[in-house]
Specification:
The complex is a heterodimer of chains A (410) and B (134).
Chain A lengths: L4 H7 L5 H16 L5 E3 L3 E3 L3 H18 L9 E3 L9 H4 L3 H16 L10 H4 L10 E2 L2 H11 L8 H10 L1 E3 L13 E5 L6 H15 L6 E4 L7 H15 L5 E2 L19 E5 L1 H9 L9 E9 L1 H11 L8 E5 L4 H6 L2 H7 L3 E4 L8 H8 L3 E4 L2 H7 L5 E4 L2 H10 L4
Chain B lengths: L3 E7 L3 E7 L3 E2 L1 H4 E2 L4 E2 L15 E4 L1 E2 L5 H10 L6 E4 L4 H10 L2 E6 L12 E5 L4 E4 L2
Parallel strand pairs in B: 2-6, 3-7, 6-8, 8-9
Antiparallel strand pairs in B: 1-9, 1-11, 2-10, 4-5, 10-11
The chains are: A alpha/beta (410), B alpha/beta (134).
């Protein structure tokens, strides 16, 4: 991989041991993918909940900060959701050791100059990247939205790589930083336009499964209207989760596919037709039971508009099962000011911020609280929680709220 | 059997027993990382231990957590010996680099159909080859 003078100096340790370690990591990954060189990035976003890092990962970040006290990220570097909402850890019955590990991680990342934004909806709350902007984002939902809806350029950057990009201000130029990789490889015709958020998520999941791997780029045509930001959020997050996809195009909608031929879609045959039947089949795979133990809205964190809709549904109800609504620290104060939090919590629900349910020791809190049957409108989350021992149930926001009130899905 | 040649490889030369399935891989979605087994009920290797095994699978699924998790698993000794895939995403390469796990990917034909389940195999990243020993 070709390095310029500054990058060679970084690799030689002239910018300190943390930057040297970051550059060594980037060279290793870049050479694996035959990257020609490094591309400057304007922002980085780190996924680093402590369930993923474990003691070993937290110790590594602490050592990085301790062994190189001058080490600081050189481009704005922000943080994905944490593994808890410190103000609400008791609601989740999280183990003390987990909360303590979170505190250590937060302190270590802050020492490196990272902005602890604790959000996976930074494109709605912090700063959406622009068309063609090269970034180093973690969290698959953030990457697929930024690539597809904003037209930015990022690969999936796992925590160590996103941190490396923050420290060096660069990332290896491969994958979706390259024009050729951004062309469509799979043409799909939508024969039905989703209605609810979980419909959009389920359509994303179907497309993700058809795409099947990271390097496939589906272009979808035939949607009956322009999806809203929250709809695209669920669509992309589910596609990334089910398919490991990082980029999609919607013909006539997303910025690189103003015309189908702009992304090479016109030369592709229609490989699949996806209608309501396929979407319902996916949803029905997560509709095995009616009784619920807990209702969760998360993954991705809720926008202000989602919280507004949820608060209206909660108004005047009394829940018999826990309902958790999880948002970002940027949205939460507005939800408080506008009385949305009050309406949800008056019904017996909880509004948490700065975390994500599945990144918050999902296995441990299931055991501590007796949670097994979990209802949600997040298609991404039902895909994840099976591995944590849950019976995930996918339903609309309205059905989930009713489940919290009556103890069972309609 | 001739060595199988890959397009991408990193890590140390290793030899071990293969756990083979035409299925995906995600450390967060598919594994009970505490007891070292595949925990997703629908995974073709559900219930099987991955500790010290060479995983031979189709592709990588899911999110970015595997980038941290492989190192964490290695720190407790509950980690696969090596990973062999038809295709990979950046996360698994980043995780293997961070966790110092041998990784090899990109073969002629389906690798999960070319290595028998339970076979002893040798992976040499320097030559980008996988060889069935027995």
């Amino acid at each position: 991989m070709k390095l310029n003078d500054i990058e060679r100096a970084m690799l030689a340790g002239e910018h300190g041991p943390a930057v040297k370690s970051a550059m060594e990591h980037q060279v290793r990954v870049g050479e694996f993918f035959d990257a020609a060189d490094l591309v400057p990035v304007t922002q980085a976003h780190i996924m680093a909940d402590t369930e993923s890092l474990g003691e070993a990962g937290v110790h590594w970040v602490e050592s990085l900060a301790k062994d190189d006290p001058g080490a600081r990220v050189r481009v704005p570097t922000i943080m994905d959701p944490r593994g808890t909402d410190f103000a609400k850890a008791s609601v989740l019955n999280q183990p003390r050791w987990a909360v303590d590990l979170e505190r250590r991680a937060v302190a270590a990342f802050e020492r490196l100059g990272i902005l602890m934004t604790d959000t996976c909806i930074n494109y709605q709350t912090i700063q959406a990247p622009a068309l063609g902007e090269s970034v180093a984002f973690g969290d698959t939902g953030v990457v697929i939205y930024s690539n597809s809806v904003c037209g930015a350029r990022s690969n999936f950057e796992g925590g160590p790589s996103a941190l490396a990009a923050g420290l060096t201000g660069r990332t290896p130029r491969y994958g979706f930083h390259l024009d050729a990789r951004r062309q469509a490889t799979l043409r799909i015709r939508a024969e039905w336009t989703p209605v609810t958020l979980n419909d959009w998520g389920a359509l994303g999941a179907v497309v993700g499964r058809l795409a099947g791997n990271y390097w496939a780029v589906p272009v979808v045509e035939g949607l009956g209207r322009v999806p809203k930001s929250d709809e695209l959020k669920h669509f992309g997050a589910a596609m990334a989760s089910f398919g490991s996809s990082a980029l999609f195009h919607l013909a006539g909608i997303t910025p690189e596919a103003v015309r189908l031929e702009d992304v090479g879609g016109a030369r592709l045959p229609v490989a699949h037709r996806v209608g309501e039947k396929e979407v319902r089949a996916l949803q029905n795979a997560y509709a095995g039971e009616k009784e619920v133990d807990v209702v969760v809205f998360s993954a991705p964190q809720l926008s202000l508009y989602e919280l507004r809709q949820l608060a209206a549904l909660c108004d005047g109800r009394r829940f018999v099962k826990p309902l958790l609504a999880i948002t970002s620290p940027q949205v939460k104060p507005d939800a408080d000011r506008f009385g949305l939090t009050g309406k949800i919590e008056k019904a017996g629900g909880h509004v948490l911020s700065g975390m994500c349910f599945y990144q918050s020791y999902a296995r441990e809190i299931a055991e501590a609280n007796g949670w097994k049957r979990l209802a949600t409108n997040s298609t991404k989350m039902v895909n994840i929680l099976g591995g944590y021992g849950y019976v995930p149930l996918l339903a609309t926001m309205e059905q989930c709220v009713e489940a919290a009130e009556k103890g069972r899905l309609p | 059997m001739k060595p199988l040649v890959a397009k991408q490889a990193m890590g140390r030369k290793v030899q071990g027993q293969a756990l083979v399935a035409r299925d995906g891989f995600s450390a967060r979605y598919d594994l009970n990382r505490i007891d070292g087994t595949f925990s997703r009920p629908t995974h073709k290797l559900a219930g099987q231990s991955y500790k010290g095994r060479i995983l031979v699978l189709d592709t990588v699924k899911g999110g970015v957590a595997s980038a941290w998790m492989l190192r964490e698993m290695a720190s407790r000794g509950v980690v696969p010996l090596a990973l062999v895939f038809n295709s990979v995403n950046p996360i698994i390469a980043q995780g293997a680099a961070f966790g110092d796990i041998t990784l090899i990917a990109g073969f002629e034909g389906d690798i999960t159909a070319q290595i028998p389940h339970g076979a002893t195999v040798e992976i040499d990243p320097a030559t980008r080859t996988v060889r069935v020993v027995e």
